[in-house]
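Anyone have tokens for DUF6182 family protein? Sequence:
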Amino acid sequence: MTSSLEPTALAHTVSDASDTLAPAPPATAALAPPDALSRAALLRSALDRVRSARPELADRLDLSSVQALRALRAGFHNADAVDTEALVVVVVGRLDLPRWVRETCSFALALAPEARDAWRGSFTRTVYLAGNPANLGERFTFDHVARDGSVAWRGPAPGAATATLRRLLKTFEAGHEMTAMPAATVTVPRTVTASGAGWSRPAVHRDLYIATSGVTVAHTLVHINHLLAEAVLDGLIHPGDRLTLRFVPRLTGLAGQFAMLRVDTDVHRPEELQAYAGLTTEV
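Reply: yep, here.
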């Protein structure tokens, strides 16, 4: 069976009328304190991610520098790690970013507790492949498929469980720079089969800031996916919550209270860290 990548579109509207998408209100939060995204603050955020996912690593490794964090990440991206760590595979046919945000949250919310723990422990590792999920349904079973069939998820599972799928399809490549889009608000679906307790709190509204300067579309998916998945697994995002996507060149100097950041190596300064996405406290 073969599959092909359909034309990629970063639409700022969701085509299915059953999806919830509203014009976003203007951002009104005050400017962040000058040190809110300082080098030390970004390093603390990156360390918090390690401690949340793998506390035993944080206890025994020197994670006091950017270089140490990069070495740790490299260890989790080697070939052996793919076979042993929990991995999610996402097959992308068409890309509508607001819809993808909604479906990413829906996928993570529906995971069973054991799958949640395994994926969190592998730092929500995810591989993106180009293909049409509709052409793959007879050969592969997906754990979640977007309502319009544009994107499908499989996992989390050891790499061997998705090896055939990963060999069949090419990596999703969208190497052009992410462009700013109009702000859009999506609602996390309530109709999910979330396991465990704790999903009944009142819905909240958060802003999701996304950095675009020097960041490719493919890397944008990586950064937002890690942020959203870990926010769901850590209990920050619940069914019914509203997320307003806001696109900015960089997060520096922006509205203040971030509940979670996605931090990685700076695209312009490899020895420094950068915040690529940020989920605010309630707005």
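The chain is about 30% helix and 20% strand.
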